[in-house]
Specification:
Helix 3 packs across helix 4. The protein is an alpha+beta fold. The chain contains six helices and 19 strands. The termini are far apart. The strands form four sheets. The protein has a nine-stranded antiparallel beta sheet. Helices cover about 15% and strands about 35% of the residues. About 40% of the residues are buried. It comes from Saccharococcus caldoxylosilyticus. It is an enzyme of class 3 (hydrolase).
Length: about 400
């Protein structure tokens, strides 16, 4: 936490659950939060804190996705499964007692009565990505919910098929949350060999940005009230990349006029614009995009060196009368051997990057300036309109 005077205090929260956290975004109520779970066969999680600005006591939920369309990146309804309520102190006490995986679950190597088939990528070594057969031990619900969050959520019926869930952003005025899926494949494709197959979409390696529609008065699958006005009831693809049948002359595997590998997201309330940063193996140069949610116009506004990831994205509205878009890049020249351009020599590209930054050796932090403050412009416009009206009266 950072106070107004710039002093910091680090707080470790135990009650937020365990997953591969990519990003967390807090809603305007300062209680409801969504998590991006990065990896394969992952999940969409939400928690609701007991009090605003206090993340030490929360109720944790996992989403079940019911697909309604497979067109243009897909769409579906969301229902929520309550995993449990806990405080940081409760979960820390459980951890401090030395709890282990075998204290929480019974495990079978094959289908067995009373056991649930689960597929999620938390295993290690030869067990990574394999179907597990699990049975919760008596009295272990809270430990499972907050220490083995994915497995427990899957046992209860949550969707565990999302792939490469990355950045999040919130549009407070329209009550929307945006979620980046950098690669629609693997668990998100149709696969009747998986334990569940809630998501059945055509593969799009270039990925998509999804829009979650937030509504008040929602209840869990079990009919329990959720004390939040920011519960996602549905999701649909807003922007979808386009894979190329063959790479273009510069080695791009996806259309350069559309997003590919969306990662960082940031929304400007003033500009009504969603900013999207790429971390893609599909574009040789990753881009930052601006998408206006009113005009539906997508504009490419920035590119980074070949092989680098566009990161650190932040739309900063009205900072002392000015607005900015912060953007960084890291690991220039990374994995360029995966591209085979014909318009340029890839070895020459590597040499140029190595001479400027060093391959995987540097990055840069920057921002786009010169953005007018919308509130200030609106005031000036009203002032001009009044002046014109006064002239007409004279």
């Amino acid at each position: 936490m950072v106070s107004a005077d710039g002093m910091t205090r680090v707080v470790k929260h135990y009650s937020t659950g365990r997953r591969s956290n990519e990003m967390m975004i807090v809603m305007p109520d300062e209680r409801t939060a969504y998590f991006g779970d990065d990896g394969e066969y992952t999940m969409l999680f939400m928690y609701i804190a007991d009090k605003p600005r206090d993340l030490s006591a929360v109720t944790l939920y996992a989403a079940k996705f019911t697909q309604t369309s497979a067109e243009n990146g897909g769409a579906g309804n969301l229902e929520w499964i309550k995993l449990g309520h806990a405080t940081d102190k409760e979960i820390k006490r459980i951890i401090d007692k030395g709890i282990t995986f075998s204290d929480i679950f019974e495990v079978s190597n094959e289908p067995k009565e009373g056991f649930t088939a689960v597929k999620q990528y938390s295993g290690q070594g030869t067990n990574y990505g394999k179907i597990e057969y699990l049975k919760l031990k008596p009295g272990m619900e809270k430990a499972a919910a907050f220490l083995e969050t994915r497995r427990y959520a899957a046992i209860l019926g949550a969707t565990s098929e999302f792939n490469k869930m990355e950045g999040l952003a919130v549009n407070a005025k329209d009550k929307k949350v945006y979620v980046a899926i950098s690669d629609i494949s693997k668990g998100m494709e149709k696969n009747d060999q998986d334990p569940t197959d809630h998501i059945q979409l055509p593969k799009v390696k270039a990925g998509a940005v999804y829009e979650l529609n937030l509504k008040p008065g929602q209840k869990t699958i079990a009919g329990e009230s959720m004390n939040s006005r920011y519960v996602a009831a549905s999701m649909k693809a807003l922007l979808v990349g386009e894979d190329l049948a063959q790479p273009d002359a510069y080695g791009n595997k996806a259309n350069v006029n559309k997003i590919a590998g969306p990662d960082n997201l940031s929304f400007s309330e003033d500009y009504r614009t969603l900013f999207i940063g790429e971390d893609s193996s599909q574009h040789i140069n990753n881009f930052v995009w601006a998408y206006n949610v009113d005009t539906k116009k997508l504009s490419r506004i920035l590119s980074v060196p070949a092989g680098a990831e566009a990161t650190g994205l932040q739309a900063a509205d009205n900072r002392n009368g000015f607005s900015y878009v912060m953007s960084n890049f890291q690991h220039p020249g990374d994995e360029l051997d995966n591209f085979a351009p014909t318009a340029v020599n890839i070895d020459d590209v590597k040499k140029a990057i190595d001479a400027t930054y060093g391959i995987d050796q540097a990055g840069a932090v920057g921002y786009i300036q010169g953005l007018p403050n919308i509130e200030k412009l609106q005031k000036e416009l009203k002032k001009q309109q009044k002046a014109q009206q006064s002239k007409k009266k004279k």
